[in-house]
UniProtKB/TrEMBL annotation:
<dbReference type="GO" id="GO:0004519">
    <property type="term" value="F:endonuclease activity"/>
</dbReference>
<dbReference type="InterPro" id="IPR005135">
    <property type="entry name" value="Endo/exonuclease/phosphatase"/>
</dbReference>
<protein>
    <submittedName>
        <fullName>Endonuclease/exonuclease/phosphatase family protein</fullName>
    </submittedName>
</protein>
<dbReference type="Pfam" id="PF03372">
    <property type="entry name" value="Exo_endo_phos"/>
</dbReference>
<feature type="signal peptide">
    <location>
        <begin position="1"/>
        <end position="20"/>
    </location>
</feature>
<feature type="domain" description="Endonuclease/exonuclease/phosphatase">
    <location>
        <begin position="29"/>
        <end position="270"/>
    </location>
</feature>
<dbReference type="InterPro" id="IPR050410">
    <property type="entry name" value="CCR4/nocturin_mRNA_transcr"/>
</dbReference>
<keyword id="KW-0540">Nuclease</keyword>
<keyword id="KW-0732">Signal</keyword>
<dbReference type="InterPro" id="IPR036691">
    <property type="entry name" value="Endo/exonu/phosph_ase_sf"/>
</dbReference>
<keyword id="KW-0378">Hydrolase</keyword>
<keyword id="KW-0255">Endonuclease</keyword>
């Protein structure tokens, strides 16, 4: 009888452990890091990079998309040995120019596939899209296996144009098309700086496929609504332009816009946006 009891107990513990592992949440974030511009003076990257690292570690990001960072900035963040990153430079499809990179914990996620496409009429090559006038825009993506839950999902990180109205509108439609083409019916997380507020056509286009984590979080959103601060501590933070979108097979437990500052300075000119999610 005692052996039977112990066998049943062991089976129950195994079941509970498996259930717990299969329901391990993921801390997702998106963070426009501001490119390394020496003209930023006290807010230039060398004065901010350790602040960014400490924020990422303190808030225990598991996987996050970045925008604007140059390759050496990504290399600086990759000095955190627990992380690796994917993504190419927007100027040449290699390392030149800003990136929309994806960082992930190496002990938690295994990349299975990855790629990049440009937000333009020729997404397969470095190119300027529609009425954008100064910058190529890129989206980097990867398929991951969660080593804790054995579940697979796709992660996309993008940065929409800051000037071209048509470029932003068309980028929203292109993202929907490419996500359908690449991920099909698999779980999807799409993060980015869209330079667009929620009522715009491009954000509404994305919401025909994915849900805005701000709107579906179980716990009410935490922090300010707005996500751009311009390095000003007294910024009104009213306009939401950075997003975390998820497919219907992903639940959002928590959502926040973080306002961490050190020595009276923000780590970037955007606030990081974070969400705790469960992949079903």
């Amino acid at each position: 009888m005692q052996q039977l009891f112990l066998a049943v107990l062991a089976c129950l513990l195994t079941t509970l452990t498996t259930f717990s592992q299969n329901n391990t949440p993921i801390n997702v974030a998106t963070y426009n890091l501001r490119y390394d511009n020496p003209g930023d003076g006290v807010n230039a990257w060398p004065n901010r990079k350790e602040m960014v690292k400490s924020l990422i570690r303190y808030h225990e990001f598991d996987i996050f998309g970045t925008q604007e960072a140059l390759r050496h900035q990504l290399n600086d963040l990759a000095q955190m040995p627990e992380f690796a990153f994917l993504g190419k430079g927007r100027d040449d499809g290699k390392e030149a120019g800003e990136h929309s990179a994806i960082f992930y914990r190496k002990d938690r996620f295994k990349p299975l596939e990855s790629g990049d496409f440009w937000l333009s009429q020729t997404p397969e090559k470095p190119s300027l899209g529609w009425d954008a006038t100064c910058c190529n825009r890129i989206c980097s993506w990867a398929k991951f296996r969660d080593l804790k839950t054995n579940k697979e999902f796709y992660f996309f990180s993008a940065h929409f144009d800051h000037q071209g109205v048509e470029a932003r509108r068309q980028s929203g439609q292109l993202m929907v098309k490419k996500i359908k083409e690449i991920a099909k019916n698999a779980p999807v997380i799409f993060v980015g700086d869209l330079n667009s507020t929620p009522e715009t056509e491009q954000v509404k286009a994305i919401q025909t496929l994915l849900s805005d984590s701000y709107q579906i979080t179980t716990m009410p959103p935490y922090g300010p609504v707005g996500t751009f601060n311009g390095f000003k501590l007294d910024a009104p933070l009213q306009n939401r332009i950075d997003y975390i979108f998820v497919s219907k097979n992903i639940r959002v437990q928590k959502y926040a816009v973080l306002t961490d500052a050190q020595n009276q300075r923000y780590p970037s000119d955007h606030q990081p946006v974070v969400a705790r999610v469960l992949v079903d």
